[in-house]
Amino acid sequence: MGQFSQDDLNLAQKYPEFGLSVLSLKKDYNNATTAEQRLLANQAANELRKSYGNYSGGADGGSFRLESKLNRRSDDLLDQLGSFGSFSYGEAPTYEIIAQDGPPHNRTFEAAVSRFGVELAHGTGRTKKQAEQAAALAALQKLKSGDKQK
Question: What is the Rg, in whole angstroms, of the alpha carbon atoms belonging to the chain?
Fold first, then answer.
Protein backbone atom coordinates (compact mmCIF):
# COMPACT_ATOMS: atom_id res chain seq x y z
CA MET A 1 0.00 0.00 0.00
CA GLY A 2 3.06 2.22 -0.12
CA GLN A 3 2.74 3.69 -3.62
CA PHE A 4 -0.17 5.47 -5.26
CA SER A 5 -1.66 3.50 -8.14
CA GLN A 6 -2.57 5.30 -11.34
CA ASP A 7 -6.23 4.85 -10.36
CA ASP A 8 -5.58 6.53 -6.99
CA LEU A 9 -3.74 9.41 -8.69
CA ASN A 10 -6.50 9.94 -11.24
CA LEU A 11 -9.12 9.96 -8.50
CA ALA A 12 -7.03 12.32 -6.34
CA GLN A 13 -6.86 14.79 -9.25
CA LYS A 14 -10.64 14.71 -9.56
CA TYR A 15 -11.32 14.69 -5.79
CA PRO A 16 -8.46 16.29 -3.82
CA GLU A 17 -10.09 15.32 -0.50
CA PHE A 18 -9.83 11.66 -1.60
CA GLY A 19 -6.10 12.12 -2.26
CA LEU A 20 -5.50 13.68 1.15
CA SER A 21 -7.48 10.96 2.89
CA VAL A 22 -5.68 8.12 1.07
CA LEU A 23 -2.32 9.77 1.73
CA SER A 24 -3.13 9.88 5.44
CA LEU A 25 -4.15 6.21 5.39
CA LYS A 26 -0.96 5.27 3.51
CA LYS A 27 1.05 7.01 6.24
CA ASP A 28 -0.92 5.10 8.88
CA TYR A 29 -0.21 1.86 7.01
CA ASN A 30 3.52 2.58 6.73
CA ASN A 31 3.76 3.62 10.41
CA ALA A 32 1.75 0.61 11.64
CA THR A 33 3.58 -1.65 14.05
CA THR A 34 1.15 -4.58 13.87
CA ALA A 35 -0.53 -6.54 11.11
CA GLU A 36 -3.91 -5.52 12.55
CA GLN A 37 -3.07 -1.81 12.23
CA ARG A 38 -1.98 -2.34 8.60
CA LEU A 39 -5.18 -4.27 7.88
CA LEU A 40 -7.35 -1.50 9.35
CA ALA A 41 -5.57 1.18 7.30
CA ASN A 42 -5.89 -0.92 4.14
CA GLN A 43 -9.60 -1.58 4.76
CA ALA A 44 -10.26 2.12 5.29
CA ALA A 45 -8.42 2.95 2.05
CA ASN A 46 -10.46 0.36 0.16
CA GLU A 47 -13.70 1.83 1.53
CA LEU A 48 -12.61 5.23 0.21
CA ARG A 49 -11.77 3.71 -3.18
CA LYS A 50 -15.15 2.01 -3.34
CA SER A 51 -17.07 5.14 -2.42
CA TYR A 52 -15.20 7.49 -4.76
CA GLY A 53 -14.05 5.31 -7.65
CA ASN A 54 -15.85 1.99 -7.37
CA TYR A 55 -12.63 -0.04 -7.22
CA SER A 56 -10.57 -1.77 -4.57
CA GLY A 57 -6.88 -2.23 -3.84
CA GLY A 58 -7.44 -5.82 -2.74
CA ALA A 59 -6.26 -7.46 0.45
CA ASP A 60 -2.68 -6.27 0.01
CA GLY A 61 -3.53 -2.79 -1.31
CA GLY A 62 -1.70 -3.44 -4.59
CA SER A 63 -4.05 -5.53 -6.74
CA PHE A 64 -6.62 -3.06 -8.04
CA ARG A 65 -9.91 -4.34 -9.37
CA LEU A 66 -13.11 -2.73 -10.54
CA GLU A 67 -16.22 -3.38 -8.48
CA SER A 68 -18.61 -3.37 -11.42
CA LYS A 69 -21.41 -5.78 -10.43
CA LEU A 70 -23.38 -3.02 -8.72
CA ASN A 71 -22.79 -0.60 -11.60
CA ARG A 72 -24.25 -3.00 -14.15
CA ARG A 73 -27.27 -3.67 -11.92
CA SER A 74 -27.76 0.04 -11.24
CA ASP A 75 -27.43 0.98 -14.90
CA ASP A 76 -30.07 -1.64 -15.70
CA LEU A 77 -32.36 -0.13 -13.05
CA LEU A 78 -31.88 3.37 -14.44
CA ASP A 79 -32.69 2.07 -17.94
CA GLN A 80 -35.83 0.39 -16.60
CA LEU A 81 -36.94 3.57 -14.87
CA GLY A 82 -36.36 5.61 -18.01
CA SER A 83 -38.53 3.28 -20.10
CA PHE A 84 -41.18 2.23 -17.56
CA GLY A 85 -44.74 2.68 -18.78
CA SER A 86 -45.51 6.35 -19.16
CA PHE A 87 -41.77 7.11 -19.03
CA SER A 88 -41.26 5.75 -22.53
CA TYR A 89 -42.03 9.17 -24.04
CA GLY A 90 -41.73 12.82 -23.16
CA GLU A 91 -39.58 14.25 -20.44
CA ALA A 92 -37.00 12.00 -18.82
CA PRO A 93 -36.85 11.70 -15.02
CA THR A 94 -34.63 14.27 -13.33
CA TYR A 95 -32.39 13.76 -10.33
CA GLU A 96 -31.38 16.28 -7.69
CA ILE A 97 -28.97 15.91 -4.78
CA ILE A 98 -31.04 17.27 -1.90
CA ALA A 99 -28.71 16.59 1.03
CA GLN A 100 -25.19 15.56 1.90
CA ASP A 101 -23.77 14.68 5.27
CA GLY A 102 -20.45 13.69 6.79
CA PRO A 103 -16.80 14.56 6.26
CA PRO A 104 -15.35 14.48 2.71
CA HIS A 105 -13.83 11.04 3.19
CA ASN A 106 -17.08 9.51 4.47
CA ARG A 107 -19.87 11.49 2.84
CA THR A 108 -23.46 10.33 2.38
CA PHE A 109 -25.71 11.84 -0.30
CA GLU A 110 -29.50 11.91 -0.65
CA ALA A 111 -31.08 12.26 -4.08
CA ALA A 112 -34.65 12.81 -5.27
CA VAL A 113 -36.02 11.64 -8.61
CA SER A 114 -38.83 13.61 -10.24
CA ARG A 115 -40.93 13.39 -13.37
CA PHE A 116 -42.91 16.37 -14.74
CA GLY A 117 -42.05 18.25 -11.54
CA VAL A 118 -43.54 15.54 -9.30
CA GLU A 119 -41.15 14.02 -6.80
CA LEU A 120 -41.32 10.22 -7.04
CA ALA A 121 -38.80 8.92 -4.52
CA HIS A 122 -35.62 9.49 -2.53
CA GLY A 123 -32.47 7.42 -2.23
CA THR A 124 -29.18 7.60 -0.33
CA GLY A 125 -25.66 6.46 -1.15
CA ARG A 126 -21.96 7.01 -0.54
CA THR A 127 -21.63 8.77 -3.92
CA LYS A 128 -23.99 11.03 -5.83
CA LYS A 129 -24.42 8.33 -8.47
CA GLN A 130 -25.27 5.69 -5.86
CA ALA A 131 -27.85 8.06 -4.30
CA GLU A 132 -29.44 8.66 -7.72
CA GLN A 133 -29.46 4.93 -8.41
CA ALA A 134 -31.13 4.24 -5.05
CA ALA A 135 -33.76 6.90 -5.83
CA ALA A 136 -34.33 5.32 -9.26
CA LEU A 137 -34.79 1.90 -7.68
CA ALA A 138 -37.24 3.25 -5.09
CA ALA A 139 -39.23 5.04 -7.82
CA LEU A 140 -39.28 1.93 -9.99
CA GLN A 141 -40.50 -0.20 -7.08
CA LYS A 142 -43.28 2.32 -6.32
CA LEU A 143 -44.32 2.44 -9.97
CA LYS A 144 -44.39 -1.34 -10.27
CA SER A 145 -46.46 -1.67 -7.08
CA GLY A 146 -48.84 1.09 -8.17
CA ASP A 147 -48.04 3.20 -5.08
CA LYS A 148 -48.75 6.86 -5.80
CA GLN A 149 -47.47 8.11 -2.42
CA LYS A 150 -43.97 9.52 -1.83
Answer: 19
Q: List, as own/partner pairs, every contact residues 118-121 make where C-beta atoms lie below 8 angstroms and the sequence separation is at least 24, other chains included.
A: 119/150, 120/93, 120/150, 121/150
Q: Which runs of consecutive H residues, i.e. helices, occur in the chain?
A: 6-14, 16-31, 35-53, 69-83, 128-145
Per-residue pLDDT of the chain in tens (150 residues, 90 and over written 9): 456 777 778 878 887 887 888 788 888 888 889 888 888 888 888 777 777 766 666 555 555 455 444 455 555 666 666 655 554 455 778 899 999 999 988 999 999 998 888 898 999 998 998 898 888 888 888 877 775 544
